[in-house]
Amino acid sequence: MRIQPHKMISLGYGRYFRSDKIVGLEPIEQDRGAHRRTNVYIEGRSEPLVASRSETAILKDLTLPTERGPESDRAFILLEKILSDLEKVGPMLRLSITHEAGLDINALEAKIKTV
Known about the structure:
single chain, 115 residues, alpha+beta, 2 domains, 3-stranded antiparallel sheet, two-stranded antiparallel sheet, 5 strands
């Protein structure tokens, strides 16, 4: 992975920063919600900015695409959509799905993020 220099990256809701000035991404664990997904550390700022986009989406925009074909691109877009949808499933429903269907959403999310 390589950072694309001088590319403007959206953090959501009209906020953009240069890709080469973003030095860190940290998913928000507590109080995570629609407008609070990722802490973004920017060069020259002491406090992180709170982005409304997920760390996965921001990281995708930061990096150069690898040599892939159109089918692979569509597959990654589908995985990102599935991941985005899975992130909306609350803890009680996750537990219920695991018990009822044997599907571990947390493990599925981790596998998608690995890809």
